Predict the structure of Antibiotic biosynthesis monooxygenase.
Amino acid sequence: MSNIKVTAIIIVKPEYRHELLEVFRQLVAASRGEEGNIRYDLHQDTENENRFIFFENWQNQAALEKHGTTAHFQNFLKAAEGKTDGLEVVTMADISENTD
């Protein structure tokens, strides 16, 4: 299977928003340099400033799995521990006929 997409929605505790935003930005920068990464974007909800959404696009499942073992991803997990009010991760396979 190829072209795996991930949406991760994280709601941070307000007192950690600025701290975690920097951690999120570091994660994005490092992840974009990974082999197999097509796209890695971070968004902030316009109605809830504590809600962040990651959109990821990976060449295949193997690249996504390797991402989970990287030092920068593990650092992100450790930094966010106990500082969030919610997390939802959806992994998807693109079944449409997109050309990009």
